[in-house]
Amino acid sequence: MKKLKLAAPAVIPGRRNFLKGVAGFGGAAGAMLAGLNDGARAQGSAIPVGQAAPLTDFAAADGVEFRNGLIMACDEINALGGILGRPLEPQFEDTKQMGDATNVQAVQRLIDRHGVHAVINGYNVGSGSAIPDVIADSGIIYVHYDATLGHTSLIESDPERYFGSFQGCAAEYWYGPGFLDFLKRLEETKEFTRPNNKMAVILSAGVYAANIANGVKERAAEYGWDISMFETVSVPISEWGPTLAKLREDPPAVICITHFFPADLAQFMVQFAPNPTNSLIYMQYGPSLPAFREIAGKASEGVIYATLVGALQDEIGLDFERRYKERFGESAGHNSGAQPYDGAYLWAVAAALAGGSGEPDDADQNRLVADRMRSLIWRGVCGTTRMNPANNAARAFPTEVNDPSLGMPHQFLQIQDAAGGGRLIAPWPYAVAPYVKPSWLA
């Protein structure tokens, strides 16, 4: 595989002037790196850092952005002096259709061929517990955004062995309680009034979608909801007719779809729009990608979706979005790129604080890095990353912690204009827009 040629770091004239310009580079993490490097250029031997991403096949829209996010982070970190003067050199392997076997092979190639000190991924579809074994055997650091209970369960089972595996967001389980709490707040503020107590839950067969759906189903009664439909669809899916026929026959107050492929979800809205039911529609993650709005068009307006990790619509997040799109194009999916971008900064700061990163089989040094990662509380593009030391996963706000400075926000967004992205409507204090009643609701 060809090595990427990164732009040469700019010559830094002096520490004081340099620190004035780091605000846009990784926020507080960038400033910390600059301070640790004392304004020095990154010019030592390169540190290889890897990523296993779905660069081709059905999830390539995300995979390309994961790649872009890591490249951008590495370039910025190198401009800040790298890790104690050593520049980062990103390496990539394609996980294609993903799955445990393919994901493991890609990570193993990163270690065997390139000797990476860390693997900084977005997500890969699979159990979430396969890659950590490869990481543990090599003694390096792994940061991912799979958002799966498989990760947390594995790390809790043997924290000593899996010291180096970190999930940069909360597990998908929190989507369920978080969604029910969100609906409760909409009702308390009189922004939404349920026409009945029925909720339809539609999922795909994967562990991720199933865990979220089951989380909603198991706790729905606590919030006064009756699950009137719980249906698993085969994906990818373009024909939603049979499912829509059931929904129209017995209209629920809320339709909750935990499947997350953007093209599939867009087709649901295209086919729902001509004959809608009086139902609030919530979808999982897919609408955050530009492809959803491009396919669904005006039919996308009114849809609510959520993500446990994504660029916030505040000063830090909007500045990142601007820089990201300036580099990769206006249609680039910065929310996907933000995941490995934040993950790379988290690891780089921790490695600098620990005295450097460790190559494969240098578990002693990487344990120091991991300890720093568990102790850091820092504000990135996606909010506050604070790891739970019991399972090496970022805590979620407001469901897991009630302090926004100590957890990554569970974001709820609504598409209010198909020409733009989703508007962040919850949680406080990050919301930038109010909820707008969808046009199809009575």
Description of the molecule:
This protein is of the alpha/beta class and 442 residues long. It folds into two domains: 249 residues, Rossmann fold (3-Layer(aba) Sandwich), CATH 3.40.50.2300; 152 residues, Rossmann fold. The protein is built from 14 helices and 17 strands. A seven-stranded mixed sheet has the order 7-6-8-9-10-16-17, covered by helices on one side. β16 and β17 form a beta hairpin. α7 crosses α8. It is globular, with a radius of gyration of 22 Å. The N terminus is likely disordered. InterPro entries: BCAA_transport, Leu-bd, Peripla_BP_I, TAT_signal. Belongs to the leucine-binding protein family. It comes from Pseudogemmobacter humi. One of its GO terms (biological process) is amino acid transport. Keywords: Amino-acid transport, Signal, Transport.
